[in-house]
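Protocol step 6 of 9: fold each sequence in the batch and record its structure tokens directly after the sequence line. For illustration, a two-sequence batch is reproduced in full.

Sequence one:
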Amino acid sequence: MGLCQWDNVDVGDEKDTELADALAEVGRRVGQAVTDAVERIRPAFDALAEMANRPEVRAVIQRAEQALRLRPCLCYCSKAHPADRGVCEVFGAVITGQYSSDLVGDVGVPLCAPCAAARAAREFAG
């Protein structure tokens, strides 16, 4: 006896046709269900898209995107540049400065432009 037990089994064309017809019907029904679902939600999607394109909504989205891009300035101003207090743009870090710590070593610190300039001026002044 061989490894395959189905060597002598006859498969009729009728069964193949029934299976193909059944699969085709399932495919048609699934496709119709998807089409019906999309058509039902299309008005809601169109209304949402129309609302999202309003100028006042676009302005809110743009402000939110800008807020998410903000990096806080982590300069310890009173210690790093005490003569230039009040120059910090708290949420406007544009570069990374180096801070040396005995505990953790060199650390990158986000700095805004005014704090970076004040630090540089203090370092150059001595």
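Sequence two, same batch, same settings:
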Amino acid sequence: MQNPQGRRERVFPARWKLGPTAISPVRIASANARWRNAALRGFAIESSQAMPIPRAESRTFILSRLLLATLAWLSWPSVTQAADYGSEVTVLIEQGRAVATSVISGRREILLDAQETVIGSEASGINAVVVTSRRLLGFSSRTLTWSETDRDLREKVLERRVLPTFSVVRTDKHLYGFHGVNGIWLDEALGIQETVKRTQTTDYGAVFVTNERLVGFASLLGDFSSKTLGIHERIVRLEKEKGLIIVTTSNRTLVFGSRLSGWEEFE
């Protein structure tokens, strides 16, 4: 076709034109899936084959590689919805019972023993946690059920953090983690002389820095994941960025939070 100036214009099929329904949602989903897979494969290959990098450039290297993997990770529906969960669950304590309420499940309760007392309770996103004198109780709005785990009666609860998709409870003897997606409790025992110095969390994971190691727990990992610290290794910096928790020590940089594995390490 020629325009009034005599120039030949190219005519595109109507389905190529831009508009709200121009591209099929199926094609978009397929393209996103291919992009995620390619990003994750590329990151895994580059991480395994990477040459040693000067420490001055390590931060740039980490962010340029890991943030790409994080974008792919965060595009998974179960993760991207975390920030949008808002407050799906509310929890309250009544006489002899703990009650969780959500739009989907309605009222769900779990009975308390006669001598069992409640130390604290909290809800966020898709999960709720109740700490009692002898148990940890967790409610998931995904499984619509309560689950429990017994704890040492002599241990002291020191910290409780309830995030949108998971929760962690720290005592002087154990680290406990609750997956809001499947309603499962997991625990990690601390060593006899091991103490937690610092804790860092994001909406997707938590890292505990002890005098012996780094312990991570994430909403999409099956269990706790740890990295032993060297005898003379000291923590220089602990920070979070784009869902990743970055730990810089005197010897290396470790990153927790990617879905590829628990920890990624860079000298």
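Proceed to step 7 once all outputs are recorded. Observation for sequence two: The chain is about 20% helix and 40% strand.
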